[in-house]
Amino acid sequence: MQKNTDIQFRHLGLIDYQEAWDYQDKLFTATLDIKVKNRAAGPDEQTPTPNYLLFCQHPHVYTLGKSGHEEHLLLNQEGLQAKGATYYKINRGGDITYHGPGQIVGYPILDLENYFTDIHKYLRFLEEAIILTLADYGVVAGRIAGLTGVWLDHEAQRNPRKICAMGVKCSRWVTMHGFAFNINTDLDYFNNIVPCGISDKAVTSLAKELGHEVPLAEVEEKLLKHLAALFGANITTAAHEERH
């Protein structure tokens, strides 16, 4: 069966976290179902699996990965309500993080068998797309050994600060969840958690580093270009479909 490297891009706008999670899960499950049916089908009867990339923003929300620690959320229920924030325990890797307006949240639902079967390479590609996008703005970023995500001052580490958090799930080489890239994000919300379980490093945004806000659509366009090049994919904007 020929591999399908095309990616259908869908922009969900500002969307409730649970609604976006349900939509991700719908696409993820449908792709898994195709793979299960393909295993039982002959070579000429197999259906190519689709690939999706979702961009969105969320209202203020904290999410805790399956390997995370609840004590890294520093707010009780009353505190969450006072901040206008919600809280979810979810099935991605990683610890706790924050999503909110001014942040590009990316959810790739890719069948990695269409590209390569290496989850570490996949994470490095996501990181590299962010690093290249930041370079377009003259911001030098990179990786810190042992820590997922994208960091500034990653080499000297005098004031290392995270600008993009990552946490993914992968089953039968199909991915879900993804990355949260701080552009015009209200960083005060990170004060209510131990971000990604790391207490000795700061969090930043592109706006903070540049000293002015940046149009999200402009950053998204650059990010899509780098993702397409890294994965060797043709990214097309899919027609809107009912998410429920």
UniProtKB/TrEMBL annotation:
Name the gene for this chain. Answer: lipB
Positions that bind substrate: 92-99, 165-167, 178-180
Gene Ontology terms: biological process: protein lipoylation
EC number(s) recorded for this UniProt protein = 2.3.1.181
Task: Copy the pathway line from the protein's UniProt record.
Answer: Protein modification; protein lipoylation via endogenous pathway; protein N(6)-(lipoyl)lysine from octanoyl-[acyl-carrier-protein]: step 1/2
> Is the Translocase keyword given for this protein?
no
Which protein family is it in?
A: Belongs to the LipB family.
Q: What does this protein do?
A: Catalyzes the transfer of endogenously produced octanoic acid from octanoyl-acyl-carrier-protein onto the lipoyl domains of lipoate-dependent enzymes. Lipoyl-ACP can also act as a substrate although octanoyl-ACP is likely to be the physiological substrate.
Coiled coil feature spans = none
Q: PROSITE patterns under this entry?
A: BPL_LPL_CATALYTIC, LIPB
Tell me the active site.
196
Q: What is this protein called?
A: Octanoyltransferase
Q: Which reaction does it catalyse?
A: octanoyl-[ACP] + L-lysyl-[protein] = N(6)-octanoyl-L-lysyl-[protein] + holo-[ACP] + H(+)
**Ranges for domain BPL/LPL catalytic:** 47-235
Q: What other comment is given for this protein?
A: In the reaction, the free carboxyl group of octanoic acid is attached via an amide linkage to the epsilon-amino group of a specific lysine residue of lipoyl domains of lipoate-dependent enzymes.
Annotated signal sequence range: none
Which GO cellular component terms, listed alphabetically, does the Swiss-Prot or TrEMBL entry include?
A: cytoplasm
| Compartmental location | Cytoplasm
What GO molecular function annotation could you give as one example from this UniProt entry?
A: lipoyl(octanoyl) transferase activity
Q: Per the record, where is site Lowers pKa of active site Cys? A: 162
Species this chain originates from: Pontibacter chinhatensis
Tell me which UniProt keywords the record has, alphabetically.
Acyltransferase, Cytoplasm, Transferase
